[in-house]
Amino acid sequence: MSDGGNDMIAPDRRALLKSAVGLATTTIAPGVTLYAFGVTQAGAKPADQPVTSAKRWGLLIDINKCPPGCDKCVTACSEENGWKSSGHPETDAQWIRKVTLRDPRTGAKREAPAMCQHCASPPCVDVCPTGASFKRADGIVLVDKHICIGCRYCMMACPYKARSFVHEEHDDQKVEAPRGKGTVESCTFCVSRVDAGRIPACVEACAAKAGAAMTFGDLNDPASDVSKALAAGASAQIRADLGLDPGVRYRNL
């Protein structure tokens, strides 16, 4: 659905497909194919090795380690996935953002990164009329841009305000993160990096340039870094009362 129009297939998405010099495909879930433009995805998971529920990817964020005013995670996500501020905060991409938390009793303020929480029971998937919003077997929640009609039901259903609508045309596409006007998008845990055995760009940048506040890994593996970190102390899920079982956990929230 185009922004402000009735065309169910945005013209810019048709143009995007036609303008691709080369077309490579990567299967990211059974029956779902992600198209990459120009080059193949080196190091991506082979198509004959689909993801399984043996893993569940998750993230722990210790906000006591998140430096005030730091936006290294936001910058890394922007560079990795090809989005940037349009100068209009109300319509900007929401892949990841820094939010200010205030204790109403003391007035103390802290900052924390917020993004798609990659819920085990994602409401965005429940309300999507086309199946564009889906959850992989390993817990990563994604949007198939080729069947997203831009209805924005998922944005209304998300209690974390983690999704955004693409209002502008883009000509600087990233191979691993195709974007298109008239579609919805959100944090993908840098899925192409994960499938290649790497960690999300925000986690890497936080460890190298900031307070190492983020720990990523397999929640199903007790020997993983994230599982060990979770076992070492109390953590919380945002809006745990909703029963969505987010894959993103916070410490010292």
Q: What does this protein structure show overall?
A:
This protein has seven helices and eleven strands. It has 253 residues and is of the alpha+beta class. Helices cover 20% and strands 21% of the residues. The chain has helices spanning 11-19, 72-81, 123-127, 153-157, 191-195, 201-209, 225-231; strands at 23-29, 32-37, 57-62, 96-102, 109-115, 133-135, 141-143, 164-165, 184-185, 214-218, 248-251. The longest helix is centred in the first third of the chain and has 10 residues, at 72-81. The strands form five sheets. It has a three-stranded mixed sheet with strand order 10-3-11. The protein has a two-stranded antiparallel ribbon with strand order 1-2.
Structural features:
single chain, 253 residues, alpha+beta, Alpha-Beta Plaits, three-stranded mixed β-sheet, two-stranded antiparallel sheet, 7 helices, 20% helix
Q: In which range does the helix fraction lie?
A: 10-25%
| Tally of DSSP helical segments | 7
Question: What's the domain count?
Answer: 1
- The secondary-structure element order is HEEEHEEHEEHEEHHEHE
Radius of gyration, taken over Cα atoms and rounded to an integer in Å: 18 Å
Output the strand order for the largest sheet.
Answer: 10-3-11
Strand content: 15-25%
| Shape label | globular
Structural category is: alpha+beta
How would you sum up the major sheet?
3 strands, mixed
Oligomer: single chain
Number of strands: 11
Low-confidence stretches: 1-44
Would you state the CATH class? Alpha Beta
Roughly what is the average pLDDT, rounded to an integer?
Answer: 83
CATH architecture field: 2-Layer Sandwich
- CATH-derived topology: Alpha-Beta Plaits
